[in-house]
Amino acid sequence: MVQSPPRTNPFPGLRPFELDEEHLFFGREGQADELLMRLSRTRFLGVVGTSGSGKSSLVRAGLLPSLHSGFLASSSWRVGILRPGNAPIGNLAAALNAPEVFGIEATDDDAIIRAALMESTLRRGALGLVEVTKQARMEPHENLLVVADQFEELFRFKQQARSTEAENEAAAFVKLLLAAVNQREVPVYVVLTMRSDFLGDCAQFRDLPETLNDSQYLIPRLTRDQLTRAIEGPVAVGDAEITPRLVNRLLNDVGDDPDQLPILQHALMRTWDYWVAQDNSREPLDFEHYDATGGMAQALSRHADQIYEGLPDNRSRQIAETLFKCLTDRGADNREIRRPTPLAEICAVAEASAEEVIDVVNEFRGPGRSFLMPPLGVALTAASVIDISHESLMRNWTQLKGWVEEEARSANIYRRLAETAALYEQGRAGYLRDPELGIALNWRQEQQPNKVWAQRYAANFDEAMKFLVASAKTQNVEIQEQE
Fold this sequence. Notes:
alpha/beta
């Protein structure tokens, strides 16, 4: 009996579509042409939309394939994709140093040296990106495109670092991009994707609001017909069928909330996997397959719980909890924010080895498990930056919502403690007293914080811990004297 080849799941889950998945990207036909038109006019494009509206997917699986197929009478593009993260200019240098952009195939050590030299050039002034492009000596028919994905990370970087160096770095990064598109010596284009709720933050940078006003693309909401194509198209590419009643149910479950798009993709990915596991290849996807995964409401949370509970022991589960607390944050206005973090830092916070953390990360980014980035094919090292694949995970995984709340409470207690310790050093505050002292002591006992964790919220960890101990001793002495 001839065995049929395994079916490839045509739904990416929570992560964005990639360049090589253009054939699976349905529902936004024609929008890539609009992006190209605006990009050609100003060489700068801001793709803006709510969380979950598909900004990254539209750029990666819509705009980039159109570019490579002959935009501006040139089919030759060098495309560097980065996220600002915790080192905007360093990450720009790393993206430009990729072999498909300006780098070469080299050993790890050589690549590090080349990236450092490139970063040094970028830091020389506002025209650093132009200088790097000139040094690369592109062919006359070649263009450079820099894609700054998740651009709102720049605002978080600037706010959390709270230092003059961070402010200067963020401003310099924006100047590099704007100066590159405003000159005509070398062909440099810039695309950035950004959550619309961060648009007002752009006013922190000179000339950025004006540039965005000229070249902004606000992603439209998918119509019911477009959503239908986004569901039925990949199913057809996967050589399968889906019943009209399930399509209608999915459309009703999505409703008007654009945040549901990644949840829809995840639910469809899980439904497909269940359908394949049941060996129903001759039957269309239907209610029974969708309901078995928990549907739109439960598929994501149930799947993540299943992975978490399936970890081999309590130690692994504790590492997983610390890992997700490192990767998520809540802003002052209660906005959920991703916090990409180097693997080495996660190891230090969790007090675990790289092997232990990598084993846990791999469980959440395995086949059919698109909860963490980078994807499974990318080997992890201490320098690898780990990230959740989408903010919707923070809103829809019940367990993670609890961890985010707990981390926010823990951070607030520590910030207050560190601030009071600093005031005490200046002679502007006394030792802690109950109930604040009791709260801080219980927090230290339960959370067992370490210095690497504390650096994310306030730098004076050692002084804060000494201050806490001194406060407890002083209170004990006073109680004994009273007795």
